[in-house]
Amino acid sequence: MGTDLEHVLLQRSAKDGAVWNQWLAEDAAQRAKIAAAFRREGELPLEVMNRDRIIHERHLKSLCVDYRLRLLDASHFAGRVPYEAIAEMERLERAAGCGLNGYKILAPASMFRLSYQDKDPMLLLDLGAGYYYLVHKWGGEVNPWRKMLMYPLRSFPAMLRSVVGFCAVVAALVPTSVLGEHPGFVRIIFFFYLLFATSAMTALYGFSRAKNFSENLWQSRYDD
User: Fold this and answer.
1) Whole-angstrom Cα distance, residue 155 to residue 151?
2) Does residue 222 fall inside a structural domain?
3) What is the pLDDT of residues 86-98, one digit of tens each?
4) Which range marks the domain in which residue 106 is found?
5) How many domains does the chain have?
C-alpha cells in the first residue's frame, strides 16, 4: 500500500486556511496584495475555494524535502494533465471571470522531463504571500518507503546522521565472539573504520548521482 501525498499534505496544512482567512481579515488591502500576484484583471475566486485546500509554502517545502519532490511552474511539466485537473482550473477561472496565472505542479523531478503514470503530481495555484491553493491531485500513490529512502538526501546534516547511524548499527551487530579479547575496544575501532569507509563511498558515489540536497532543489528548475 502506497502513501497518498495529498492526504499527508492536507494533514500538515490543516490550520493554514484559517490562518489565511485571519490574514485577509486583518487588512482590507491584503486582498489587493494577493490579487496583484495573479497579474491579471478580474476577481480572486475566494467564494469557490475550499479553505481546507489552502496550504502555506513551509508545508510544501517540508513535503518536497521529505520525499525529494519539486514545486515548479506548470509550464515546465512534461507529463499529461488529466481532464479532472483542467476542469477544476476552468471552475476557478469562471469564478474569477478570466484566466488565472500562477499555476505550479508538485511532482518528482523526473516528471518535468518524462511522463510516468505511477507518480503522484499535484496542481497548485500560487495565491501570493507564501500561500497556495491545491487545485487537483492525480496519479497513483508513492512508495511508502520513499520518505525513508530519501532521508539522507534531505540535507547535509541528514546525510551525516544517516552515515553515522548506519555505521553504528553495523558495528553493534557484529557478534562479540568474533571481536577477540577486547570486544569493546575492537568494536569502537571497527565503527570508526566503517565511518571512514562509508563516508568516502558516500562522497564518491552518492554525490556523483545526487549532486545537491532536497532542501536546495525543491523549487529549482535545473537538474540535480
Assistant:
1) 8
2) no
3) 888 888 888 877 7
4) 5-146
5) 2
